[in-house]
Amino acid sequence: MEAVNANNLQCCHCNEVAVLTTAWTPKNPGRRFFGCRFYGKPGACRFFRWYDEEIPERSKEVINGLLRRLNKLEREKEAMESKKNPGTVVGKLL
């Protein structure tokens, strides 16, 4: 699928201006796309169009590796902070 010109407003099948969002999947890390602003809500259309060209495979590997390192460092930082302040809960609650 080809990328789209940023000056060309994209409208979804709901006749609304599509929103520009960034994908953070392993297959498309950091790649931007237009999608329906009502995505995930009842009655939303399934409009999807890439904004960016596909990035080279090596770039995907580098980005994904850096994201893994960043996540690991954030977990280590949280662990160190919780040891420093044992009464403090650090992290995300689900």
UniProtKB/TrEMBL annotation:
<dbReference type="InterPro" id="IPR010666">
    <property type="entry name" value="Znf_GRF"/>
</dbReference>
<keyword id="KW-0863">Zinc-finger</keyword>
<feature type="domain" description="GRF-type">
    <location>
        <begin position="12"/>
        <end position="54"/>
    </location>
</feature>
<protein>
    <recommendedName>
        <fullName>GRF-type domain-containing protein</fullName>
    </recommendedName>
</protein>
<keyword id="KW-0479">Metal-binding</keyword>
<dbReference type="Pfam" id="PF06839">
    <property type="entry name" value="Zn_ribbon_GRF"/>
</dbReference>
<dbReference type="GO" id="GO:0008270">
    <property type="term" value="F:zinc ion binding"/>
</dbReference>
<keyword id="KW-0862">Zinc</keyword>
